[in-house]
Amino acid sequence: MKHSEETRLKIKNKLKELVRLNPDKFTSSKKEKKILHCVECNEKMYLRPSDKKKFCSLQCKDLARDKGFFKGKSGGMRIGAGRAKSGWYKGIFCNSSYELAWVIYSLDNNVKFKRNTKGFEYLNTEGYISNYYPDFYIENEETYIEIKGYKEKEFENKQKYFTEKILVVDKNKIKPIINYVESKYGKNFIELYEGNPHKVKNNKCLCCGEPAKFQYCSRICSGKGVRKLKDYLDCKPNIR
User: Fold this and answer.
1) Which one is predicted more confidently, 132 or 202?
2) Structurally, how many domains does the chain consist of?
3) Cα 170 from Cα 46, distance rounded (Å)
4) Residue 64 to residues 45, 56, 121, 157, 191: CA-CA distances in angstroms?
5) Containing domain of residue 158, as a range?
6) Global pTM value
């Protein structure tokens, strides 16, 4: 059923008044852009919600490939390839929450380290030559760091052929580090990733005040919010 001209005019006037009273909430009618960071240079990229772009330019993509950040036919290290919570923290990419905890702890304690991009050849379980990339490198101690929650069979082969000095931080060694980070920054310390890529609930629900990823914590509260908005529009006097 179509609205009459008078009804359409009333709706139009109510919406105009709502926009006038709440200019910050109606700055643009376009969809919000999501913010991601270039894997290579950490430059901010403003993308559509469905866009999964990882590099700001072809040049950055080529540089990342040269550093071994892609795993192609020749092997290599892939940033963010696993299912763990990955992201950027103060210009350093972390592939998991364990790595993030270690990075935070090391920076807080003035440990000078860098992300490792050097590969070391080893013989894998299938009998082929592959490359092993430890996670970090502490320069003044000439020690590689491997953050490893679970040691699979392939990792044993990597260690067997690795001849450099290395410290493996397993799930037992990482516990006191995580305890330190949680006590100082809270249990949801992954929200410290730049841009909060994992949508940690660091907002407050506009309806009930509970932690929420977006404006509302649930569909129930979202429905209540819509009804409140409708009631507000119905009660507002017409603008002539």
Assistant:
1) 132
2) 1
3) 37
4) 17, 12, 20, 26, 25
5) 68-196
6) 0.54
